[in-house]
Amino acid sequence: MAVGRTLKRFALASLLSSISFAGMITGTSWAPAGDNPLDITFTLTHGPITANAIHNPGIMNSPLNFWQLTITSIEETNTTFNPGDAVKIVGTFQHTVNPPGHSDGALGVLFPFELTATKAAPKVNVLGNRSHPAKTHRDAYSISILASYTGNNITGYTFTATGSHIPEPGSCLLLGGGLCALGIWRGWRMNLLR
Fold first, then answer.
1. Which of 37, 68, 122, 160 has the most beta carbons within 10 angstroms of its beta carbon?
2. What share of the chain is helix, strand, coil (3-state, %, to 5)?
3. Chain-centroid distance, C-alpha 135
4. Which tens digit of pLDDT belongs to each residue from 145-162?
5. What is the residue-wise DSSP string for 54-121?
6. pTM of whole model > 0.85?
7. HSE-up (13 A, CA, CB side) for residue 161
């Protein structure tokens, strides 16, 4: 019941969330990533790179403050020594709220990342995961950047960061074992009632 209310509030908050950047950032958004209300995707879109620039919006929190993201975007224009525009995004991603049903009371471990999109490699992905200190679950991260080029010039790029909450295998085994025991008990009880 509480998860349903949380999901509804999360959906409303994601529609209302927007972060402003200096420069040619054309949009940002936080959105649910799948059925789990704890899973999130942040997307930033940028128009053409017209000059060398650095964007540093500081700490950004997802709706309901479940996740925290910091990014710095470094844009370099086409030069004689560096043919082709490039964009580098450096930052950290962290699960900042202990999920309902978990009592470890600990924040997730920071996931640092650095991606550089160039004409030779316009799409870059980084995958990883971090365990909560009490080892009750893991957080999986998928970070990517995709730059569009015309000639040597970036006509736009999209940065995407997704965070997912994943139970530890031990928790899954414990749940599976409990369900099996419940099934065996029910079968035994049905045989007694016949």
1. 37
2. 20, 45, 30
3. 20
4. 999 999 999 999 999 999
5. EEEEEEEE-GGG-EEEEEEEEEE---SSS-S-EEEEEEEEEE-SPPTT-----PPPPEEEEEEE-SS-
6. no
7. 27
